[in-house]
Amino acid sequence: MDVIVPFATRNPKTRLSDVLDRRERNAFARAMLADVLEAIDAAGGTPHVLATRPLDRDLDIDRGSFPPIDAETIVDDRDLTTAVNATLAASFEESTAFGPPLAVVMSDLPLATPTSLRTLLETKGEVVLAPGRAGGTNAIVVRHPSFRVDYHGASIRDHRRAARSIDADLVEIDSRQLASDVDDPDDLVEVLVHGDGRSRDWLVDAGFELAVDDGSVEVVRNDG
Amino acid sequence: MDVIVPFATRNPKTRLSDVLDRRERNAFARAMLADVLEAIDAAGGTPHVLATRPLDRDLDIDRGSFPPIDAETIVDDRDLTTAVNATLAASFEESTAFGPPLAVVMSDLPLATPTSLRTLLETKGEVVLAPGRAGGTNAIVVRHPSFRVDYHGASIRDHRRAARSIDADLVEIDSRQLASDVDDPDDLVEVLVHGDGRSRDWLVDAGFELAVDDGSVEVVRNDG
After folding, report:
1. Does domain A2-180 match CATH 3.90.550.10?
2. Range with the poorest average pLDDT among A111-115, A167-171, B63-67, B209-213
3. What is the pLDDT of residues B12-32, one digit of tens each?
4. Of A163, B6, B23, B118, which shows the fewest CB atoms inside 10 Å?
5. Chain A closest CA to B16's CA: distance in Å?
6. Which of A174, A210, A213 lies nearest to residue B177, judging by beta carbons?
7. What is the DSSP string of chain B?
8. Quick check: ipTM above 0.90?
């Protein structure tokens, strides 16, 4: 199955600004993207990056710190919802190179494994949703020509409503790995505890480690 | 399968103190417990509450606000780890009324469904772990006589090590529903977005609702 992976090339992951500077956020975002692309490939999917700018454009900043991204890239500088809906609409036209069906998987899911992605891709349903934290939608499979996304607000509720409004057969899958998007510093705990790819390696190389107190687990950064 | 559900009767869920007073935390904790017990029963498990005090003791405070708990209760006022390990040790003796195998499922998992719990109980492995957020372990199935728990700190890492140290066959299951324990006010978002049991009803009755901004989803409380 073709899998669209949206990626914002400029100033990604702003909510990590307290712990990572802009260059670091760029590098870490690309490490997560690389992990997701690799897992999609291992799950039997064909990933396409839907990027706001060509992926090699910003590499001039610090080429060494970005892992290479070799998936096909579609460039669309519109907002996430608009760009994803354009690919969904196009996928149901015969002339396009991808889909249907079409999956949309967020790029900030470093815990996504081939197994959890295979479950996503193989679950039957005209609309298959994998919820994220805080009302988000981290992954979708679309087999219905009229389904469109809306990533604003509590998107999982809107996606449920959208599926119902077109009488689409809706299934939600139960995956912690697909639910674990990385937005806030607290989310880095999940990557250190459960990750095993480039994203975890990047954090470890950057000096992050777990600080385990009796009742809490946090990440701290050793700059030394 | 017999399923132990630990429950602290006194001053539960202290990290919700900013949004719920002590009586409310008692009532909400019991609503979550009732949801978990019902889901375990529907999954084919036999729940036993492992409580620090008899469950009816504190009902005098405000009987009406607590849902009835009709599962068998084991009273053990020692700390969580000690009490759970005592039941694990006992379960492998012929004289006890429960296990082996024995499962341990936390009481603050209002999103746990019969399906996710059935997956837990049916997954093969001498030690089966369902991770929580922040390094926690929300559910365990134990089929090995020597496995013991340690809920302090990043327990999932300790449980992995403990399983390896006794050469137990270890499996981790990937469930968002079992990973969604409720500790902090942010976690209430999950209950409102995804819950459908007593816990969600209790929050709605208490005036909680989602506040959806373009980029964030939070809970707010209407006291009016």
Report:
1. yes
2. B63-67
3. 999 999 999 998 999 999 999
4. B23
5. 15
6. A174
7. -EEEEEE--SS--GGGTTTS-HHHHHHHHHHHHHHHHHHHHHTT-EEEEEESS-TTGGGGG-GGGS----SEEEE--S-HHHHHHHHHHHHTSTTSSS-SSEEEE-S--TT--HHHHHHHHHS-SSEEEEE-GGG-EEEEEE-STT-----SSSHHHHHHHHHHHTT--EEE---HHHH----STTHHHHHHHH--SHHHHHHHHTTEEEEE-SS-EEEEE---
8. yes
